[in-house]
Design goal:
The chain is an alpha+beta fold. Helix content is 29%, strand content 36%.
Length: 83
């Protein structure tokens, strides 16, 4: 069963702030994830996952076959402390 993607408003807003080239890389990687292709994703918590795209971190929460993309953040020393 394919994964359904729901992009949170916060994610959309943060994505629009990024340079066009970075936006394209992130959207392309999310498309690969949606198609079931291998991507760099790991579990951080029971239902919280992290998708790594270069220096960017995409945080995803799973609810059944629905993947809600929560936010996109640049990797810093404090990126994972909030989780």
């Amino acid at each position: 069963m394919p994964i359904r993607i729901l992009k949170a408003a916060k994610f959309e807003k943060e994505l629009r702030k990024l340079p066009t080239k970075e936006q394209k890389k992130i959207v392309d990687e999310i498309d690969l994830f949606e198609d079931g292709k291998p991507v760099d994703i790991i579990r951080l918590d029971k239902d919280l996952w992290r998708l790594k795209i270069g220096c960017w971190r995409i945080f995803i929460r799973f609810k059944g076959d629905l993947a809600e993309i929560l936010t996109v953040e640049r990797r810093k020393t404090t990126t994972y402390r909030k989780r």
